[in-house]
């Protein structure tokens, strides 16, 4: 049976001096460091291409930070960027707020903490995993059409949807402690498919050297 790899690439660091949870808000661009991360990921894939392992299909979330992360790889590999709204960031009640203990303790937010396992403050983890996996399977099929057995695709997305997808693929419960997510900026969570079935999940950080000191925002 044919084997295809789909790389779920988290975007690079975002310019966010006010420390807000930007969620699906428009016009949050990569920082200077974020652009360097995106360039390093492109170099990673270009090096793989020299060994005959070039991705043949590139998809990105419609959000600015994902599109900007995809651009250097598109240029390096000569690929068009296909935009897929199914791999967008998770919906979140706290979008646009600077997250702090004082903010979270405001009574107007209390009803959103009723069910942290769903979670009640945003898009259900299961819904995220399902839409992401549907997009990954479609990318798997398109990559196979373009490159045959052993083809690769890249989906540029966001931390929580990627993490939910990984946990689902690994058969793990979807609720979790956000502090324990293994999904750093510009990281790759790779799903290996045989047909439409995920047979392996792996993780790597092509831009690991740039991670120390990088700014992060609490996950959705």
3D architecture notes:
- The chain has helices spanning 32-50, 64-77, 101-104, 125-147, 159-169, and strands at residues 3-10, 57-60, 81-83, 152-157, 188-194, 197-204.
- By secondary structure, it is an alpha/beta fold.
- The protein has a single domain, classed as Phosphoglycerate mutase-like (Rossmann fold, 3-Layer(aba) Sandwich).
- Strands 3-2-4-1-5-6 form a 6-stranded mixed beta sheet, sandwiched between helices.
- It is globular.
List the helices and strands and how they pair.
Elements: E1 3-10, H1 32-50, E2 57-60, H2 64-77, E3 81-83, H3 101-104, H4 125-147, E4 152-157, H5 159-169, E5 188-194, E6 197-204
Parallel strand pairs: 1-4, 2-3, 2-4
Antiparallel strand pairs: 1-5, 5-6
Helix pairs in contact: 1-2, 4-5
Descriptive labels:
single chain; 220 residues; alpha/beta; six-stranded mixed beta sheet; His_Pase_superF_clade-1; PGM_Phosphatase
Strand count: 6
- Helix/strand order: EHEHEHHEHEE
- CATH classification class: Alpha Beta
**CATH superfamily (homologous) name:** Phosphoglycerate mutase-like
Unreliable stretches? none
Distance between the termini: 37 Å
InterPro entries: His_Pase_superF_clade-1 (IPR013078), His_PPase_superfam (IPR029033), PGM_Phosphatase (IPR050275)
Pfam family, one: His_Phos_1
Organism: Arthrobacter cryoconiti
Protein name: Histidine phosphatase family protein
């Amino acid at each position: 049976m044919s084997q295809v790899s789909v790389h779920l690439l988290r975007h690079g660091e975002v310019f966010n001096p006010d420390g807000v949870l930007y969620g699906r808000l428009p016009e949050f661009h990569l920082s200077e460091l974020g652009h360097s991360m995106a360039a390093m990921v492109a170099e990673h894939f270009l090096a793989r291409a020299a060994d005959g392992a070039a991705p043949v299909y590139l998809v990105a979330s419609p959000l600015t930070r994902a599109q900007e992360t995809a651009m250097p790889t598109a240029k390096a590999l000569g690929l068009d960027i296909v935009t897929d709204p199914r791999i967008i960031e998770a919906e979140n009640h706290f979008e646009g707020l600077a997250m702090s203990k004082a903010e979270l303790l405001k009574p107007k937010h209390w009803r959103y903490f009723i069910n942290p396992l769903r979670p009640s403050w945003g898009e259900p983890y299961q819904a995220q995993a399902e839409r992401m996996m549907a997009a990954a399977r479609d990318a798997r099929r398109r990559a196979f059409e373009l490159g045959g057995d052993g083809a690769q695709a890249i989906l540029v997305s966001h931390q929580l949807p990627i993490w939910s997808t990984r946990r689902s693929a690994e058969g793990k419960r979807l609720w979790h402690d956000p502090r324990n997510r293994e999904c750093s900026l510009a990281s790759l969570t790779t799903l290996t498919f045989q047909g439409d079935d995920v047979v392996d999940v792996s993780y790597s950080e092509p831009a690991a050297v740039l991670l120390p000191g990088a700014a992060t925002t609490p996950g959705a």
